[in-house]
């Protein structure tokens, strides 16, 4: 068990213990009653904190991808229709995840849907929010921890700088976890989508299979009960643990982006814990809904409650127009 994994375990226990509070969308932590700064001052402060920091640990969660245009997961909207039209017209799913839960009648159609889903994220360009964040971090020593599976961060950065602790869409694993291997999903997915055209199913012989047991493959992602937590998974935790421990005595800024109420244990609460225990750590969260700053952190951090895409754009503009007083 490594350092960050251990932190997640602790917060998971906390989550179970106080489950009704979390389930109601709240938190068992005592929150600050300080009034937030006006929005413009919050942006200035965000930029200053980034400038002053020796290093930044970014925690990128679902709200970041949603803000950047990846809004097809939970609704039947234009972007969902753009990628999933044949399925949307036939089944009227409320977004990409709803289709994943559908009791598909054939494996060929199930894989048609799954391939469409994976292809959509694999081939999506890097979205504006990510580019704005990238500009904000320019010249900084930083590391990214993410629960997003949509490959946005690895399109921008080398894998050594990114820990994807919930898996991601470029890899397959054995659906039955018979082996610790993961393998490329990009090529097989492109082939499936190619052959499918405007239909909703793929040919039987394109169903991806485990090279060891011959059973079906599955994307290497958490959320469906068979997430392979082997070597590759351990490596993700080792990367974030190493980075955090190496920088614990420096001016480290924990920048949390878009953590929802379902999973505070992977980014949010470990960041709170680390900010509290490291002497020079600072914490900033950006969230479009939840104003959660623990009272214990009120002098070390800030929460900006606003649209994440807007915040990152405004911060980038402010950084660019500043007097660069470094
Ligand atoms: Zn297998």
From TrEMBL:
Name of the protein this chain belongs to: NAD-dependent protein deacetylase
Binding locations of Zn(2+): 174, 177, 210, 213
UniProt entry tagged with the keyword Repeat: no
One MF annotation (Gene Ontology) recorded for this entry: metal ion binding
InterPro entries: DHS-like_NAD/FAD-binding_dom, Sirtuin_cat_small_dom_sf, Ssirtuin_cat_dom
Keyword vocabulary terms for this entry: Metal-binding, NAD, Transferase, Zinc
SUPFAM superfamilies tied to this protein: DHS-like NAD/FAD-binding domain
Keyword Lipoprotein: no
Residue span, Deacetylase sirtuin-type domain: 36-322
Source species of the chain: Hominiventricola filiformis
